[in-house]
Specification:
Layout (H helix, E strand, L loop, with lengths): L5 H26 L14 H11 L30 H34 L4
Helix pairs in contact: 1-2, 1-3
């Protein structure tokens, strides 16, 4: 394992930025849910994140999964012709987005803590 794996840290930061943008888009859709003239903002950034993942990940052992994982990644609704905001769907997407953001922020936090421990030699 590399001590200073900056590629991994940059990937985590990109993921957090994507989830932040997605959160803002969903919040905008929810805020305008009762406006019939409002058209929902696309909130599916998974293709951008997938591109970032496949560019950085390399398979170094035959037992590792491919960059795409063991199967298909779940995707959000890609229907661009939807005319109104489905509040239930938006709230569900918001919950999923929050879980993903929390997971990546924990990974980034753990990475920084490991780096700090390596530099200082202190575990707390």
């Amino acid at each position: 394992m590399k001590l200073f794996d900056f590629d991994k840290i940059q990937l985590y930061k990109k993921a957090l930025n994507v989830y932040d943008k997605q959160h803002k888009a969903i919040a905008q859709n929810v805020a305008n849910a009762h406006d019939n003239s409002y058209r929902p903002v696309k909130t599916d950034f998974s293709d951008q994140l997938q591109t970032a993942l496949t560019e950085k990940l390399k398979k170094s052992d035959p037992r590792h999964f491919d960059a795409n994982g063991p199967g298909e990644f779940p995707t959000l609704d890609k229907d661009k012709t939807r005319e109104t905001v489905d509040l239930n769907k938006e709230m569900g997407d918001l919950a999923v987005n929050q879980i993903r953001f929390d997971f990546v922020s924990r990974l980034l936090n753990r990475t920084y803590k490991s780096l700090n421990t390596s530099i200082t030699g202190k575990t707390n």
